[in-house]
Please model this.
Amino acid sequence: MPRPITLAAAQMGPVSRQESRTAVVRRMIELMRQAAAMGAQVVAYPEACLTAFFPHWWIEDEAEVDSWFEREMPSPATQPLFDEARRLGVGFHLGYCELDTSGDRKRRFNSSILVAADGSIIGKYRKIHLPGHADHRPQTPFQNLEKRFFDIGDLGFGAWRAWGGVAGMLICNDRRWPEAYRVLGLQAVDMIFCGYNTPVHHPAAPDHDRLGQFHNELCMQSGAYQNSTWVVGIAKAGVEEGVDMIAGSCIIAPNGEIVARSTGNADEVIVARCDLDLGASYRETTFNFALHRRTEHYGMLVERTGRQAP
Ligand code: ING
Model:
């Protein structure tokens, strides 16, 4: 029987280096109000959405690096967002840069959280696939220093009961790797939220540039279909500190169809009425592991074990 929920992607345009978190949160609250007015029960924001995507430039000073991170969540600057969500009765997904000082050494993560309408944090994810490089490459038009500024996520790909279903999170580059969706799919997620900051230009492989939007949709549509889940992709888009980033925020059904897509590359809300049960017919037929996933049919297994397929 249907399990309807209205999901929203709150795409954001550029955030400048000088833009305060307070100013950004004001933009986010405006988007949350628009989404709520359109019936949204959950509003999803991009990766690292509180500041400019600082891995795009070289930073040596430790204190300056730390200034791009949140020491607590909610923080004084983000508390108004939590308060507005409670006032509107909506849940939300938030991508932010997390400074963790709970252990014996400072750790930095590219993180995201799911937040219930009462302001409680349902779950946290820390980005596992960190693209780019750790060294300074002044010869390229911009950097991608996630390997320099972030520790590899240490929480795995988690899934949480939320909003009448099971929700999971990916962050940006994670969405390009089928294993990431599969680990969530094996936990029977109904919805995956994935924020991203994706430059139009890929310095390491410029010939890929023309396919940037195609690859963006291809990887999320495949992940949705092959794991019978909804996927919400949320961009930080536009020219941010000289780096042009793709938009293309979208809401994708478990059948792989894009049911909502942003039209611009600025702040923009897209919304879709999603039936969380839409994935059931795929899990029960096409992707029924028990019926169809028979490892003895794999050639390499037969070779290794010498067993003959039936
Ligand atoms: N950004 C990009 C992403 O995976 C990238 C980096 C772009 C990698 C294109 C490979 C190809 O969308 C982040 N922040 O992961």
